[in-house]
């Protein structure tokens, strides 16, 4: 005999958070429910879960659309970051994602978080670099960053 429950957390071998699963009565009563890993799956709770999943899906769609619009604005744009350098063109310090995000904000007028900035290798010399901005798990924009010497 089985019992339907809604998982409140990922349970290995059973399912993921917010899944409605059938488990044995003993497993539900002796492990899942006392450990607060699941709740009883009543019709009201299943309906509320369905509503919640729909709302989350809509929020993800809106976030994806915003990221795509932002990527369209940023792709192909160029910003300049100035830093102190040796006569050979090596920087005294590297260019950080924070500096790149600040340059994009001030020069392009678009606020991006420093955690979205990713470079292939650390920027430690003068030159032009392609920098990826991961705006969403599915959306990435490429921006050109020119590192120039402070005069």
Description of the molecule:
This protein has helices spanning 25-32, 43-74, 97-108, and strands at residues 2-7, 20-24, 38-40, 78-83, 90-95, 117-118, 123-125, 127-136, 139-149. It is α+β, with helices and mostly antiparallel strands and 151 residues long. It has two domains: 2-62, Ribosomal Protein L9, domain 1; 70-149, Ribosomal protein L9, C-terminal domain (Ribosomal Protein L9, domain 2, Roll). The strands form three sheets. The chain has a four-stranded mixed sheet. Strands 2-1-3 form a three-stranded antiparallel sheet. The protein has a two-stranded antiparallel sheet with strand order 5-7. A hairpin with a 2-residue loop joins β8 and β9 (139-149). It is elongated, with a radius of gyration of 25 Å.
Mean of pLDDT? 92
What sequence of helices (H) and strands (E) makes up the elements?
A: EEHEHEEHEEEE
Spatial order of strands in the largest sheet = 4-9-8-6
| Alpha plus pi helix count | 3
List the uncertain runs: none
State the fourth-level CATH superfamily of the largest domain.
Answer: Ribosomal protein L9, C-terminal domain
Kindly identify the CATH topology of the largest domain: Ribosomal Protein L9, domain 2
CATH top level label of the largest domain: Alpha Beta
Ends apart, CA distance between termini: 78 Å
What is the number of domains? 2
Described by strand count, sense and barrel closure, the largest sheet is: 4 strands, mixed
Rough shape?
elongated
């Amino acid at each position: 005999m089985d019992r339907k429950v809604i998982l409140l957390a990922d349970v290995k071998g059973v399912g993921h958070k917010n899944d409605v699963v059938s488990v044995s009565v003993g497993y539900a009563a002796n492990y899942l429910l006392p450990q607060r890993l699941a709740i009883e799956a009543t019709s009201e709770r299943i309906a509320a879960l369905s509503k919640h999943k729909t709302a989350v899906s809509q929020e993800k769609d809106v976030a994806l659309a915003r990221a795509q619009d932002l990527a369209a604005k940023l792709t192909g744009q160029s910003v300049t970051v100035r830093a102190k350098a040796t006569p050979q063109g090596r920087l005294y310090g590297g260019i950080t994602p924070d500096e790149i995000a600040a340059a994009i904000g001030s020069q392009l007028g678009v606020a991006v978080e420093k955690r979205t900035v990713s470079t292939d290798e650390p920027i430690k010399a003068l030159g032009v670099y392609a920098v990826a901005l991961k705006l969403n798990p599915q959306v990435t924009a490429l921006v050109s960053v020119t590192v120039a010497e402070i005069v």
